[in-house]
Amino acid sequence: MLTTASIGIAGTIAAGRASADTLADVPPREPGADLSAFSARSKYVRIGRIPEAGPGRRNVDPSDAINSKTPLDKLVGTITPSDLHYERSHSGVPDLDPAKHRLLMHGMVQKPLVFSVDDLKAMPSVSRTVFLECTGNGWENWKKADENLTVQNTHGLVSTNEWTGVPLKFVLDLVGKEKESTWMLAEGGDAAGVARSIPLTDEIMEEAILAYGQNGEPLRPAHGFPIRLIMPGFEGNLNIKWLRRLKFGDQPWMTRWETARYTQLLADGKAKQFQLRMETNSVITSPSGTMEIRPGYNRITGLAWSGHGKIAKVQVSTDGAKTWAEAQLNYPILAKAQTRFQMDWVWDGQPTKIVSRSTDEKGNVQPDRVSFIAQMGTNALFHYNAQQTWSIDAAGRVRNVLA
Amino acid sequence: MLTTASIGIAGTIAAGRASADTLADVPPREPGADLSAFSARSKYVRIGRIPEAGPGRRNVDPSDAINSKTPLDKLVGTITPSDLHYERSHSGVPDLDPAKHRLLMHGMVQKPLVFSVDDLKAMPSVSRTVFLECTGNGWENWKKADENLTVQNTHGLVSTNEWTGVPLKFVLDLVGKEKESTWMLAEGGDAAGVARSIPLTDEIMEEAILAYGQNGEPLRPAHGFPIRLIMPGFEGNLNIKWLRRLKFGDQPWMTRWETARYTQLLADGKAKQFQLRMETNSVITSPSGTMEIRPGYNRITGLAWSGHGKIAKVQVSTDGAKTWAEAQLNYPILAKAQTRFQMDWVWDGQPTKIVSRSTDEKGNVQPDRVSFIAQMGTNALFHYNAQQTWSIDAAGRVRNVLA
């Protein structure tokens, strides 16, 4: 047990000492509603994917939204509820008929095949809990920091679900991928026809999944129903939703999604293509932007993740990155999944800054913002993984700042 | 990869060989709906917790229901979506105001305390993925087998969620549990006031959680919002919902929930009390009751779980328990959580019976029905963990049978 915490928290318990050995201190028992086909959320729980700037003020009109963000500030544990998984679509959300949907596998293969959804569901399956992250996650802080942003605004384009489906490798065996096939084109069934060229490395052939299940149930339309590609550790855009086609070849197709879009404009004006892996990252989710804290014991908690594998270590600074302490990592620590960290902290009431820094099992360390910008410049839009700093003023107000 | 499966499935792919290197075989792309605050389920997905007997025929009126069951036949992976977690309540579902709710800890402790929900949320947390199972799960098959039951009917009172909250041990330190306190009374805030005496073994003090989170979000009212007790491996009834009180003492309280209810009537007419741990169990979820299969390749899959720890092995028989083969266990295998198993099978079209048998890491083997009934008799109602047999007739119809 965390002894610091037991000492710290003993003085902050709001409800306090019980009056006597009676039930005078707790509200009376309540009768309840009938059971039902689905357990709805409590009427007291206010949670949703449309970001809010400041209490109750939405900063995006849903009809204008090009993405919707996971409310990391209101979630606990590591799983993201399916209906709160972040969403980024280029042509809205189609609700495809699974009885009619097909997946074509063709190109440099010995036996081109078409699969129905039932064909795929009859095959051996795997389940894997992994994060998905939009490559644009964090872009709000590339050039400046709006102090009114919440962690949902700054980091809400990452979520973790248990995905279930057929290992890519299994269907590669069925169609007989030719040895010269080193690239795969994955295309979605939405009107935008998002299509990406994916290099067939050993890692990708071993880990990619043609998923039909999400957190135990069928995929939801916003997340690719009836089939999506899951590419553990790689940018969200590669995890093609509404998957209709996998074509095999010996070079990338240079689709507009990897030439005009999703390339990285570097400081020297050159564009970097196929920067596919998501780097080691972390963020403190509480206390975080627009929250207010009180002096005394506060628990710091957040999430860390890396496209390279498991999180090895998360360090937290409560003095603006001058000194660091190692946070506790919650079990289980899964490769390419979000890991929850936490640390006890007694705040002395003085203005300060808090920040987290993750290290993954391959030794990659999340960069500070100054080093990150020095390397990447400010033209880029994607793969922002600099450390996130929250400032705390004398009144306990937590705000988004650059460092 | 499962070579048997690749060979078996190659002949059963419904959609079949692609016509040419074109998109003639897949439906056109579709425009989509706007993004939204929540991702709804597909209109094509029919899923719910009210059991159905036969296609479309509900066998329980929701207003008469005393429990609602997880549709294990329609789920994949291991996580149960929060709104489909099984439900068993004795006085309906209250939606308690978390701002007013309190937890009293008193009795044989040095410092009786009352906690608000915010107090608990400020404490160090743990997350753990575990199964919960109603002790009555499986009772339908004690005396006879209705052949029209689905696996949702026979085994739908077990689910697996990621639960997040405060370790019991942490609050025990805060109130200063006295050494003589060997029992804990946990009481719920629903009108029925379900209350159970729990022995404070090392295992329970180490593993029990005061949970406020479920699959990443706040508990849902049907599952105990704002606080419930999580007792990994022990009968569902001990996982007290709407938790309002923990009282400590040196003997059990003998509440009506452990005297008149939730005792086990044995073959000799004696009643067994405090049979708290859920035993090793498993069930094939596909193919399962009321499904229909075709000759040729079929994937057998199901779930196994044990209150003793991890699942070590699941064996499957496709010839009515004459011979057994070891099924593949899907990663990760977590202690006291459901583990997914699967096995390739080529059905020759002859009538047969399929059955699964789990073994846990402590060496406990799920009993066959004859041995189980010989030991327990047919007076009992709880802790049914006999092997589940599904019969398959010449037409491929899958039916619930005793063995």
Describe this structure in words.
Two copies of one chain form a homodimer. Chain A is mostly beta strands and 403 residues long. Helix content of chain A is 10%, strand content 30%. The first copy, chain A, has helices spanning 3-10, 117-121, 151-155, 168-175, 202-207, 369-376; strands at 16-17, 67-68, 87-88, 102-107, 113-116, 126-133, 158-167, 183-188, 195-199, 209-214, 217-218, 228-230, 243-249, 264-265, 271-272, 281-286, 296-305, 311-317, 325-326, 328-329, 339-347, 352-360, 389-392, 398-401. Chain A has a five-stranded mixed beta sheet. In chain A, strands 6, 7, 10, 11 and 12 form a five-stranded antiparallel beta sheet that branches. Chain A has a five-stranded antiparallel beta sheet with strand order 19-18-22-23-24, with no helix packed on it. The interface between A and B is large, with 134 and 134 residues.
Briefly note the structural class of the backbone of chain A: mainly beta
Using the alpha-carbon principal axes, give the shape of chain A.
Answer: globular
Largest interface: A-B, 134 and 134 residues
Number of helices, counting only DSSP H or I runs of 4 residues or more of chain A? 6
Fraction of residues in β-strands of chain A = 25-35%
Spatial strand sequence of the major β-sheet of chain A: 5-4-13-8-9
Radius of gyration of chain A in whole Å, from Cα? 23 Å
Low-confidence runs of at least 5 consecutive residues of chain A: none
| Major sheet attributes of chain A | 5 strands, mixed
- Assembly context of the chains: homodimer
Distance between the termini of chain A: 32 Å
Query: How would you state the average pLDDT of chain A, rounded?
Result: 91
* Helicity of chain A, as a percent range: under 10%
Strand segment count of chain A: 24
What is the ordering of alpha helices and beta strands of chain A?
Answer: HEEEEEHEHEHEEHEEEEEEEEEEEEEHEE
